[in-house]
Amino acid sequence: MKFSYFLPTKLTFGFGTVEGVKAETKGLRSTWALVVTDKVMMKTGTVQKVTHGLDVPFEVFDEVEAEPKIEVAEGVADKVRSKSYDLVIGVGGGSSMDMAKVAAGFATNKGTARSFVGNDLFAKKPVASIMVPTTAGTGAELTVTSMVTVDGHKQWINSPLLLPSVAVVDPELTMTMPPGVTAATGMDALCHNTEAYLSSLANPITDSAALEGIALIVKDLQKAFESANDRPARESMSLGALLGGIALQAKMVYGHSIGYTIATRFKLAHGVSCGLPLPYIISNYAVACAPKMKKLAEAYGVEPATEPQELGREVAEKARSIAAALKIPTTLKEIGVAESDLGMLADECLGMYPRPNSPLVFDGKSMTELYRRMWEGNLEA
Ligand SMILES: [Fe+2]
Fold first, then answer.
1. What angle do CA 127, 142, 43 make, to 5 degrees?
2. Which of 107, 247, 291, 368 could make a disulfide contact with 196, Cβ separation 3.0–4.6 Å?
3. For residue 197, how far is its CA from the centre of ligand 1 (angstroms)?
4. Are residues 197 and 210 in contact, defined by beta-carbon separation less than 8 angstroms?
5. What does the pLDDT look like over 148-189, one tens digit per residue?
6. What proportion of the chain, given as a percentage, has pLDDT over 90?
7. Are 225 and 204 in contact (CB under 8 A)?
8. Ligand 1: distance of its center to the CA of 186 in Å?
């Protein structure tokens, strides 16, 4: 066994930890901070909760949109380069944190935002950053990736240098999420943990995080969805999401790739677009990941069967029942995908979003078959 794991981020977790942001800015010796967020976070007073009592002077960039386009990244690049900010504080869901992470990189690296789309394109170390998630889903506070939409397609800016200096994960901040956002972001976290577990790059650290993350989410996502003020459920979800962020170093398999092909076209929240394929991914990967299926079944709270295919089917059924209870669509037909487009989507999935770390290798024919099963709602692998 050989693996490496890299996590330079200081993590603080728990109700009330947002109070500690002030101390963290001091610890980082910052003199001038840029808060990167969206207008909803400003309106709900969440940003004010984070910045309350800060000693360091700060300004706010609140123009982040959901599923940000590259133009938003260009905007944040202009803003962070307009003054000598030495700290970026990201407040919000994955979109705000992703834009905050790239802002920290743009502060010290020249070039258009577009020129950083790809892998490892930052030459210089970013300025310090603090991430404060307000959803329980993306785990972006602990990942090397920032997603951007470029010319209608999901792309990414990836670099280990983008890992934040500090992540402050306070479940209290997630309690104002409406049920639909709780469902979609929670489903995203379930996908991260499950897909990372199925990845050929998984290691004992990512597997431990993933299995615990799945168990927490399966136990409490429905409760958080039904009752916004259920504090133990919110705590489980925040923890499950950050464990997903830890697991993400194993990378995703084809569930997220499939999600990218339908998210922009059908205007789906990220968690919905990757949640829809999840049950089918589980049943399809069951044989390729046979030695790992028993533990996955336990994490999903499913009575383990003996045959991997059977196990996969049972876990997939459970994942589908979780999605259905959250009112997340479970077939491509439901979201309006035309039957005649299945081959085109499968080609785009393989061409634009390949997964060399997938233990299950697809060609055009088998990927189209998978799209067809997702269209019909057929969990058979
Ligand atoms: Fe995701």
1. 75
2. 247
3. 14
4. yes
5. 999 989 899 999 999 999 999 999 999 999 999 999 999 999
6. 95
7. no
8. 10
